[in-house]
């Protein structure tokens, strides 16, 4: 099935109906994940969240769960960035959500939320010290698998975060490129996932890895919960979310080589053709609705619009410069409108299927 199944000019009435239906289900947590690096995850999260928040009037909390903090650098001003990270003990970041657990204080009482006007969403900013918490989550995972309450509570830290974000329509997670302990906890807490990918052989492998890893983790967690003496100590009484696959986004921002010459197109096309089958094979256990097109869209090379939107700290659709930016911005508007429409359509179809 191809993306042509989802109409890019879907009447806004239909979209509004889908949005209303989605909002009636309460907050939906979506992670954007690929264990391959540099495939456009952060760019997609920031620009898709901005499109849905600014154009479709949704309340979105974006969580920068990547210790590289690229999303945070993208959306906050340079001055705020310096002020925050220059301090010896910066607080109010994703680190402050996880740190209390490691010193036996339990879940943080409030989420450290920051409003980002240019993008229309709120954020929990990233923190390089999050990398230090990989160990805590990895150690406590062993305890969780054996039914230990402490390990299970640590593993459920993002479920607690999502529960506290109940006033939002969506929580979007930007994640680092690994199958490590932080990402495991996020994937076990979220309701849905989207896979941003480049069109290359590594993306085919990444799709296989994601499917296999998540299935194993879910089984191990189920086992831990069965063994635990007191599920009432765990968020949602230890109920594991069903994680659904909403679709993948391809990007071509590496279609040109450093010298500006096109890359080998035949290899690219051969892999592009394999993607739908690979996705169907590796991720079918995560489909709740077989009938939706899983290709949410294709992001072409947007030239200097991408770095310019980073330095200006505005979404690509709102970069106000003229000249060569005019065409790139027009393309960006079409691309993100199309992906947002397909994303909302698939989410609505998935949620309606779930309650049948
Ligand atoms: N459509 C695009 N056109 C041109 N450049 C792009 C486009 N999308 C992303 N880029 C550039 O590609 C680089 C990688 O993108 P991004 O940081 O979003 O990838 P990522 O998957 O989040 O990386 P990581 O795995 O390190 O987190 C960035 O420098 C970004 O500016
Ligand atoms: Mg990134």
One letter per element, helices H and strands E, the order comes to HEHEHHHEEHHHEHEHEHEHH
Number of domain units: 1
Strand order of the largest sheet: 3-4-2-5-1-6-7-8
> Rough shape?
globular
Question: Could you report the average pLDDT, rounded to the nearest whole number?
Answer: 91
Outline the low-pLDDT stretches: 1-11
The CATH topology label is Rossmann fold
CATH architecture classification: 3-Layer(aba) Sandwich
Number of helices: 13
Can you describe what's shown?
With 356 residues, the protein is of the alpha/beta class. The chain has one domain (10-295, 345-354): Rossmann fold, CATH 3.40.50.300. It has 13 helices and eight strands. It has helices at 12-23, 41-56, 70-75, 78-86, 94-102, 133-145, 149-155, 157-164, 181-189, 201-227, 265-283, 305-312, 324-354; strands at 28-32, 60-65, 114-116, 121-124, 170-175, 192-198, 244-251, 295-299. An eight-stranded mixed sheet has the order 3-4-2-5-1-6-7-8, with helices on both faces. It is globular and about 60 Å long. It binds adenosine-5'-triphosphate (ATP) and magnesium ion (MG). Residues 37-43, 66, 68, 70, 176-177, 251, 253, 299, 301-302, 306-307 line the site of adenosine-5'-triphosphate (ATP). The site of magnesium ion has 4 residues, from helix 2.
């Amino acid at each position: 099935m191809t993306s042509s199944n989802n109409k890019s000019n879907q009447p806004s009435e239909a979209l509004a109906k889908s949005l209303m239906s989605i909002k009636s289900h309460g907050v939906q947590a979506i992670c954007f994940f690929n264990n391959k690096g540099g495939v456009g995850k952060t760019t997609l999260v920031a620009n898709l969240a901005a499109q849905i928040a600014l154009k479709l009037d949704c309340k979105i909390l974006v969580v920068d769960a990547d210790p590289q903090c690229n999303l945070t650098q993208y959306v906050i001003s340079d001055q705020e960035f310096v002020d925050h990270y220059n301090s010896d003990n910066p607080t109010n970041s994703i680190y402050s959500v996880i740190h209390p657990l490691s010193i036996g204080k339990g879940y943080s009482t409030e989420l450290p939320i920051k409003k980002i006007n240019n993008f229309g969403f709120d954020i929990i900013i990233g923190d390089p010290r999050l990398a230090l918490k990989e160990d805590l989550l990895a150690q406590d995972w062993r305890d969780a698998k054996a039914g230990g309450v402490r390990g299970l509570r640590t593993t459920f830290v993002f479920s607690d975060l999502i529960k506290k974000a109940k006033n939002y329509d969506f929580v979007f997670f930007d994640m680092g490129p690994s199958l490590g302990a932080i990402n495991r906890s996020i994937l076990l807490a979220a309701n849905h996932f989207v896979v941003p990918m480049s069109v290359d052989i590594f993306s085919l492998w990444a799709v296989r890895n994601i499917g296999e890893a998540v299935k194993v983790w879910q089984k191990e967690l189920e086992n831990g919960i069965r063994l635990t003496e007191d599920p009432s100590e765990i968020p949602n009484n230890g109920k594991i979310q069903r994680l659904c696959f909403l679709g993948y986004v391809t990007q071509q921002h590496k279609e040109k080589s450093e010298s500006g010459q096109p890359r080998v197109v035949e290899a690219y096309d051969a892999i592009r053709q394999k993607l739908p089958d690979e996705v169907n094979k590796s991720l079918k256990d995560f489909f709740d609705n077989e009938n939706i097109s899983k290709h949410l869209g294709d992001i072409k090379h947007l030239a200097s619009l991408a770095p310019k939107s980073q330095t200006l700290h505005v979404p690509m659709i709102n970069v106000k410069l003229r000249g060569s930016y005019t065409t790139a911005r027009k393309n960006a508007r079409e691309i993100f409108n199309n992906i947002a429409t397909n994303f909302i359509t698939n989410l609505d179809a998935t949620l309606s299927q779930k309650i049948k």
